[in-house]
Amino acid sequence: MEEKNLKKKHEKQLIGRIAIAYNHMYKILTKEQTFLPASLPGNYHFQVQHEADYPAVGDWVVFHQLPNEDKAMIKEVLPRTSKFSRKTAGVAVKEQIIATNIDYLFIVTSMNEDFNIARIERYLVAAQHSGALPIIILTKADLCEDKGWILDQLLLLGVDFTMVSMFQPESVEVIKDYLIGGKTGTFVGSSGVGKSTLINLLTNEERMKVGNIREDDQKGRHTTTHRELIQLGDGYIIDTPGMREFQLWEDDINIGESFTDIQALSEQCKFRNCSHHKEVGCAVQQAIDEGKITEKRLSSYFKLERELIMLEKRRAKQEKKRMKTTNKKKSARYE
Ligand SMILES: Nc1nc2c(ncn2[C@@H]2O[C@H](COP(=O)(O)OP(=O)(O)OP(=O)(O)O)[C@@H](O)[C@H]2O)c(=O)[nH]1
Ligand SMILES: [Zn+2]
């Protein structure tokens, strides 16, 4: 027993950052900028209550390195400052964490006919949910002859933005500036807007320094370059498949759509608890009559409202069930 305690004391507690998470197996980016395979102690699984309690890409973790082995055991996930998650609204409500501790959400959009302010607004809502600060990156500035109409719309949003072009590599330096001081950024945007091009421009130098990392899998030894958590100066870039797919779930109800117009109108309704159906003095219905908003917009607002109520109900039910089983477990322990 004493010997065990002694050993524990000598185990060095280290801090690193989850670079890859797959099936509860991890790679930690260490202070020495190496990637260390890591796993969880067996009892960890009994302590977690939600999937979201498991380490995720971007998490800072306390770990110890196994003696004489290039392997680590994760002890603890440090509190998250922000998180991107997806609430899967199937039969059971589950929160799936995509990435954590992100300071900046770089919303990438190209300056051509694909430019779409509504899409940007949805990403802004997502940023708000996550706790990250949104920055809009306008790519392919070289292809854009008339920038005025785009910039006019962006100015109204009141969000920082910057223009970049792959033909002017120095234009991406602004992004590096955001990451000074150990900050973390991640990129979202539709396919083809130029995210990879941008990340390559940003990381070219660093990647050559880090080189490739060898990894074992069932098919034998092969070489892959891990680029999910990239150190850039003293900051980081997170580029995971999950964040890449973010565009596919723009319609998820946790992101929803911003209905700021309807919310603003409802403040002018005569009754504070107005449901905007048939009440007297409903400012929303009046706006429809005046053609300021469409019926369709109001009905999608109602739809989102209903979905959120359903989700909340299901969540409450699950919570109740969970409490019941943990209480059972607790009382079983004292029997
Ligand atoms: N003219 C011009 N083309 C660009 C610029 N940046 C990227 N492209 C081109 O746009 C295309 C798509 O760029 P990617 O970087 O692959 O886009 P992506 O956002 O990573 O796309 P996904 O991987 O599908 O998500 C490529 O052919 C790039 O060469 C730019 O600044 N100017
Ligand atoms: Zn109303």
Automatic annotation (TrEMBL):
* InterPro entries linked: G_CP_dom, P-loop_NTPase, Ribosome_biogen_GTPase_RsgA, RsgA_GTPase_dom
Which Pfam families does the UniProt record give?
Answer: RsgA_GTPase
**Residues that, per the record, bind Zn(2+):** C269, C274, H276, C282
Q: Which residues form the EngC GTPase domain?
A: 100-244
Domain CP-type G positions: 94-246
Hey, which family's this protein in?
A: Belongs to the TRAFAC class YlqF/YawG GTPase family. RsgA subfamily.
Functional description taken from the UniProt entry: One of several proteins that assist in the late maturation steps of the functional core of the 30S ribosomal subunit. Helps release RbfA from mature subunits. May play a role in the assembly of ribosomal proteins into the subunit. Circularly permuted GTPase that catalyzes slow GTP hydrolysis, GTPase activity is stimulated by the 30S ribosomal subunit.
Q: A Gene Ontology MF term for this entry?
A: rRNA binding
Q: Where is this region: Disordered?
A: 315-335
Which cofactor names does the annotation list?
Answer: Zn(2+)
Report if keyword Translocase is assigned: no
Could you say which EC number(s) this protein's record lists? 3.6.1.-
The record's keywords, sorted A to Z, are:
Cytoplasm, GTP-binding, Hydrolase, Metal-binding, Nucleotide-binding, Ribosome biogenesis, RNA-binding, rRNA-binding, Zinc
Query: Can you list the GO cellular component terms from the UniProt entry?
Result: cytoplasm
Which residues hold GTP?
T139, K140, A141, D142, G189, S190, S191, G192, V193, G194, K195, S196, T197
Q: What is this protein called?
A: Small ribosomal subunit biogenesis GTPase RsgA
Q: How does it assemble?
A: Monomer. Associates with 30S ribosomal subunit, binds 16S rRNA.
The answer to keyword Ribonucleoprotein applying to this record is: no
Q: Which GO terms describe its biological process?
A: ribosomal small subunit biogenesis
Protein localization? Cytoplasm
Point out the signal peptide segment: none
Q: How is the cofactor bound?
A: Binds 1 zinc ion per subunit.
